Amino acid sequence: MLKPFSMQGNVDCRAGRAAVAIALAILLNACAGMGPVAEVLLAPVPGTTTTGRAVFEQKENGIHVVAYVAGLGFGPHGLHVHEKADCGTAEDASALGLTMSESDAYGNAKFNAVLPGLTLQGDKSIAGKAVAVRTAPGARMACGVIVKR
């Protein structure tokens, strides 16, 4: 005959609850430091196979951007924000250069920069604008529009 399992004296549930409360407090504290976030999925322009993804996070001193791009030729490339949300425009005179990166032998590049003076809200917001990846001489490789999450 089986005896019923008794929790008396074996386990203190208060310790488990305290551990869960501490873990929850740590997670909430980590999320509290995050500002607005936006992202862009970079699609290849005709004639290229370049793709990528960039994440923009609002910080006190500007926007922190991290982008991973694949399908580039070897060499330097730039990440640029355009005045409008149009990836089809050939003229890019209004582009703001964000950061440069050197692609590796496999055509992969990581862009990582803080962009002072820009925001994801208000008058200086870059949300809703196009982002392009270009070769150092200026040929556009991929483009996408920044979307707030």
Distance between the termini: 58 Å
The residue-averaged pLDDT reads 79
The helix/strand order is: HEEEEEEEEE
* Rg, Å, rounded: 23 Å
- Report strand %: 35-45%
Q: Approximately how much helix is present in the residues? A: 10-25%
Query: Given the helix and strand composition, which structural class is it?
Result: mainly beta
Tell me the major beta sheet.
9 strands, antiparallel
Number of E-type strands: 9
Overall shape: it is globular
Number of helices: 1
Describe this protein's structure.
The protein is mostly beta strands and 149 residues long. Helix content is 13%, strand content 42%. It has one helix at 13-32, and strands at 37-44, 51-59, 62-70, 75-81, 96-103, 109-115, 130-135, 140-145, 147-148. Strands 1, 2, 3, 4, 5, 6, 7, 8 and 9 form a 9-stranded antiparallel β-sheet that branches. Strand 2 and strand 3 form a beta hairpin. The model is unreliable at 10-32 (pLDDT under 50).
Secondary-structure blueprint of this entry?
Blueprint: H1 13-32, E1 37-44, E2 51-59, E3 62-70, E4 75-81, E5 96-103, E6 109-115, E7 130-135, E8 140-145, E9 147-148
Antiparallel strand pairs: 1-2, 1-8, 1-9, 2-3, 3-6, 4-5, 4-7, 7-8
